[in-house]
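Appendix B: a complete holo record

For completeness, this appendix reproduces one full record from the ligand-bound portion of the collection. The bound molecule is 7JO. The inputs are the chain sequence and the ligand SMILES; the output is the full three-dimensional arrangement of the complex, encoded as structure tokens. No fields have been trimmed.
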Amino acid sequence: MDQSKEQRILNSVSYNAVKGDPESVLDCIDNYCSQKEWAMNVGDEKGVILDKVVEEADPTIALEFGTYVGYSAIRIARLLKPNARLLTIEFNPEFASIAREIIEIAGLSEKITIIEGHSQDIIPQLREKYQVDKVDFVFLDHWKERYCPDTILLEECGYLKKGSILLADNIVYPGAPDFVKYIRSHKSFDCTNYPSHLEYMKVEDAMEKAVYMG
Ligand SMILES: C[C@H](C[C@H]1O[C@@H](n2cnc3c(N)ncnc32)[C@H](O)[C@@H]1O)NC(=O)c1cc(-c2ccc(F)cc2)cc(O)c1O
Ligand SMILES: [Mg+2]
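The structure of the chain with 7JO bound, as generated:
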């Protein structure tokens, strides 16, 4: 059976990246996906916005919805302080296992926990099963229709504290209109829009930052 695109990305990283060097893994994925096969990584242009927001948040506990092959997990984890950690949720088992291997090549397995499952099922378990009390940073990059209900779920479960920062990918394309409407009209969130482009394309896209005001 021929390999999947995600397997070919792993092959490229395994062959070309410098083991233990997150930057070289990111460059390898960006080169492969801009020159050979497009893939839905946040990419290098929106990745700079992600970097800046992670540095602003300086999180101890970071959370990600939608690991895919682990590109943004590596982007986030490479910036975390020594005792900080990233929990990333992915429901596709093939993607989760490829992400695990790519994260291992980047040398970041100690800082990243990949949780296999649906975000809506995992979120309520984070306190008991993963010792999460509050989350300092959340990157939303999973099914765009899940952004809004999962944000509500995070709030209802009490994981957000004053200053918790949410960052959402794909606000314009594919788009998350219900999330944008909800978050911008919610009195407890202070929102900022960051216009950019769809990964590896000239298509308009944007990211939305929402700071929880408690
Ligand atoms: C949704 C995907 C990202 C991953 O999320 C996992 N996932 C899903 N729902 C859940 C859950 N409820 N819990 C846990 N994991 C979950 C999945 O399995 C994918 O691996 N991302 C996208 O679809 C995506 C698509 C595009 C895109 C843009 C232009 C086009 F012409 C076509 C596609 C761009 C992007 O930047 C994306 O991010
Ligand atoms: Mg995305």
